[in-house]
Amino acid sequence: MKLTKFLVAACALYVLLCAQTGLAADKKFLLVNLTSYTTEESRKAVDYAKGELEQGRPVVIFLNDRGVLAASKANAETYKEQQKNLIDLMKRGGTVLICPDCMKLYGIEPSSLLAGVQITERHHH
Question: Tell me: the pLDDT tens digits for 4-23?
């Protein structure tokens, strides 16, 4: 359990650093780290992100831990509303990233991901 929490934290930090260097320096971006996408709080966070995107602010949604379940087409019935929101966000220019270690942990295959979801790269130092 400690290793999983460490991996989740490490992935979130990595995404934050990569997203910061990859987005325009003149605009501060919004990073939403979703470890789950089943709570009212997570829905509000994505709605807020969509609003910020509409205002011209770059938005990155990072799915990790159980949040990766919402990005798999195999879970389309369970996460119907969430998948619609993620697709809508990406169509509007938002970025959705997903943790590869968490995908492996929950048995999510890359081929089952929603179109546009990007698997973060691992860099070993």
Answer: 444 444 444 445 444 444 54
